[in-house]
C-alpha cells in the first residue's frame, strides 16, 4: 500500500459535483499529472489531497495510512500530512533570505535545532541547484530561482508526497521548458510520489509517467502519455491531447482484418476503434496531422485520397499544411516540404492504425470544426 491512493473521491459545491467518483494511485517515485481545462476538477482534487478541501465522500491514504475518510470521520489537517506543495505563485517571503524561506517550515514545526535546520536547508538547496544563494533575498533572484526556492521549501520537511499546482506557468517559455526536466530529475532522484496539476498538455506529456485527463469532474482517460496520444478514447481526449483532424463518417461494416470500414467525405476508409458500432452509425474519426502521408499515387497507400494544398506555414521543426479533401479541410504536418504548391493536387494516405473512431458524431461533442 505504499504511495498515494485516492478512492471514489467526491466533492460537491452546492448541487454541482466538482469531483465525481475519482480514483487513482501514485506509486513511489511516480510522477502523475492531472490534466484538463479550467473547471474540470483537477485543482479541487489536488486541494482535497493536500487537505485544503473537505471531500463529501471517498478515501485518501498514504503508505497505508488513511488521511481522509468522511464516512469514518477521519480528516488529518494539512500541517500533519507531511506533504510538500509548490504553488503557481512562488509564495516566497520578500523580507526573508533564501535560507530563512526554505527553513521556515522547520522553524514553525519547533522540533528542529538551528544546526539541523541549516543542515537540511543546505542539503535541499544543493539538490535544487541553489547552493551558495543562502544569503540572497527573493528580489535578487530570477523567476526560475524563486521557483527553486519554493521547491526546496517543499522538500525540506522530507515529505511523503509532492504536490504541484501549475508551478511553471509564471515562467517564460525557455525557462519553463528547462525547469520541466529539472523538476522530474529531482523528484525521480528522491523517489517521492508526485501529483502535478496543469492545463498544458505538452508539459504533462513530457514530465509524466502517467497522465490523468479530467473532464467535468471525472477521469476521461488515464495512462502513459504515448498510449493516450496514440489511442484517445473520446473526441474530448483526442482534442485536448495534441492536435487532431476530426472527420464525420458513416459506419459501413467490418473487414476481414477486424478494421472498421467507414464512409468519409472523400471515400471509404479503414479505421480502428476501442468500441463497436452498428452499420449506419454516424461517427467521428480522429487523425493526427503528422499521420497523413504523401504517396506517389492515389493507389500507393491504404486509405488513399486526393487532396489539394490550401496553405502552408513554416514552424521551425516542421511545416504545417492545410489541405482540402472531399470538401473538408485537414491539417497536415511534415518535417520536409512536399512537391505540391498552393492549389496543386497530390496523393495522400492514412494508415488505418492512425485513423481512429473516437465516438458517435451526435453524442461525443462533435462540431463542424475539422481540427
What would the principal axes of the Cα set say about the shape?
elongated
* Uncertain spans: 364-368
Helix proportion: 10-25%
Taken in chain order, the helices and strands follow as EEEHEEEEHHHEHEHEEHHEEEEEEEEEE
Beta-strand portion reads 35-45%
Largest sheet: 6 strands, mixed
Distance between the termini: 43 Å
Our count of helices gives 8
Number of strands: 21
| Broad structural category | alpha+beta
Integer-rounded radius of gyration: 25 Å
Give the strand line-up of the largest sheet.
Answer: 7-8-9-3-10-11
Average pLDDT: 92
Would you kindly provide a written description of the structure presented here, covering whatever features stand out?
The chain has 371 residues and is an alpha+beta fold. Helices cover 23% and strands 36% of the residues. It has helices spanning 42-50, 98-109, 114-127, 143-155, 173-190, 201-207, 225-230, 235-240; strands at residues 4-13, 16-26, 31-35, 57-62, 65-69, 74-75, 83-86, 161-165, 194-198, 210-215, 218-223, 245-254, 260-264, 267-273, 282-287, 292-295, 305-314, 319-325, 328-334, 345-350, 356-360. Helix 2 crosses helix 3, helix 2 (98-109) packs parallel to helix 4 and helix 3 (114-127) crosses helix 4 (143-155). The longest helix has 18 residues, at 173-190. Residues 364-368 have low confidence and may be disordered.
